[in-house]
Amino acid sequence: MSTSPYSGQPPEPQPLCDLRSRLLQTVGNEFLAPLEIVHQSTYLLACFGNTWEIATCIQHLHRIQEAVEQMNSVLEKCLEAPREGD
Fold first, then answer.
1. Which of 6, 45, 46, 48 is the most exposed place for a label (fewest CB within 10 A)?
2. Helix or strand (DSSP H, E) at 35
3. Burial, 74: exposed, middle or buried (Cβ in 10 Å; 0-12, 13-18, 19+)?
4. Which superkingdom heads the taxonomic lineage of this protein's source (predicted)?
5. Global pTM?
6. What whole-number distance in Å separates Cα of residue 59 and Cα of residue 52?
7. Left, alpha or beta for 11 (phi > 0: left; psi -120 to 50: alpha)?
8. Is-contact 31 71, C-beta < 8 A?
9. Are 34 and 28 in contact (CB under 8 A)?
10. What's the mean per-residue pLDDT of the chain?
C-alpha cells in the first residue's frame, strides 16, 4: 500500500545523513580556497620570510588574515542559518 502525498500523513523527513553530507560538502568547498591560501602563505613565510622584504611578508600575512576572516564568515552563516527558521 503506497501513501499518496495527499493522504494527510506528513512526508518522511530526508535522512539526516543526506543533509549532513550536503552541509559538509558545501562548507568544505567554501573552505578549500581559503585553507589553500593559508597553507601556501605560511609555507612561503616559513621558507623565505627571513630573506624577503618586510612588505612582502606583510602582504602574505594579510592574505592569511583575509582567508581566516572568510572561513569565519562561512561558519557564522552556517551557525545562524537554523536560527532564521525558528
1. 6
2. helix 16-48
3. middle
4. Bacteria
5. 0.67
6. 11
7. beta
8. yes
9. no
10. 82
Per-domain boundaries in the chain:
37-73
- Between 54-85 and 16-48, two packed helices, what is the crossing angle to 10 degrees? 170
* Number of other residues whose CB lies within 10 A of the CB of residue 42: 15
**CB 13 within 8 Å of CB 47:** no
Alpha-carbon separation of residue 3 from 8, 11, 14, 24 (angstroms): 9, 9, 16, 32
The cell numbers describing 40, all together, are 601556501
Single out the residue of 41, 39, 31 nearest to residue 70, CA to CA.
31
- How far is it, in rounded angstroms, from Cα 51 to Cα 65? 22
Q: For 7-49, how does the pLDDT look when each residue is reduced to its tens digit (9 = 90+)?
A: 666 656 667 777 778 878 877 888 888 999 999 999 999 999 9
